Amino acid sequence: MARLKNLGVTTTGVNPPPTCLLCEMEIPYVHDSGIAGCPTWDRTPESDQLLKCQWRGYWRSRLKHVMVPSIQIEEACFGDMPRLWSCFCRAIIKESDTKYHLTGINMLQERSSEPYHLPKDPTIARIGGRKNARYDNATFIEFYAAKMKRQPSQYKGQRLGFIIHAHCWILFGRALGAMPTEIKLAKFIQSSRNHWRKENLHGLTDHNINWVKPNQALSEREHSCDIYQNPLVIPALQEVITRANTGHSIFPCFSKLPIDITVLISEWVCPADYTLDDVANMRNMLFTFQWNLPDWFWRRRLQEDLFFELDILRKSSSPVNWQGLRLDLMSLVSDRTWYTTRGLANRERILRNVAAIGRGAGMS
Prior knowledge:
Blueprint: H1 33-36, H2 45-54, E1 65-69, H3 70-74, E2 88-94, E3 100-102, E4 106-107, E5 116-119, E6 124-129, E7 140-145, E8 160-165, H4 166-175, H5 185-199, H6 235-244, H7 259-269, H8 276-289, H9 295-299, H10 309-315, H11 322-334, H12 336-341, H13 344-360
Parallel strand pairs: 7-8
Antiparallel strand pairs: 1-6, 2-3, 2-4, 2-8, 5-7
Helix pairs in contact: 4-13, 5-13, 6-11, 8-11
């Protein structure tokens, strides 16, 4: 049983479940069936094998802790275990009322009384290591999970950390057009606390995760979408973005038609409240007529704020097939089964919190 330093009192049952400040999800553990496929209280061989394959250049059997650059975790697609991202998190450590610092990345171990450990260096991520390896104070920082409301008296004088998914942290910066190093941590924490005191940070879970395989869609859900799907790295969306970079020029076959006529026809083919079939019909028509529709036509049909990737494309010097890209994005959005189970709906859910917290921090 752990004892808090300098107080001589136990913390049993006090350390709250780690909950992400941005997505409101209770950080899952690797032993959950839908995360890594093997319900055991130790790290699963399946997840270890996946991580070893992706980072074989770093993995050594004798290493106490296997460390990789944090950016590699943030940009990773975890293949047959797409929900594994949700186990990786950072923390913003409180040193005083005005001073905070960001940690590196680790997968937290389940513990209701023991402190958590994360790398001190924010550019480092721990992805594995020897079982029961000790965390040294030179490389790792020890802390207890902070609550949004008043901390329990047992925490007085202890180091506290506000936990955030590694991927949600990057999503926050990209959605608001800020580099992670540009985010003022004190303002971020103050805004987060104000937001969650009003909204109540619940610690979302979905017990249906225990009845599916890691790469199986969550057909029955407790929430509007699969909250365990990666909101940052969405493979199908990345494929669409890559395909758009093969831009091409458009030579209208019916260039003499007034723009209001082409728009009128296009609105009839693909109304603002469109279906997947409408998008397919629109694609066929534009392929045949090669019309170049105005941007406002597409913005009425596509919530472009959902796709921070578009800002990256706009800043690039490469040609972009914007109409083809928007049609592809509309296809993804209108496929409701895919949308709710493959990360994009989860991104939309999280971005509502991002916008509110960003406003409070003076970032939007």
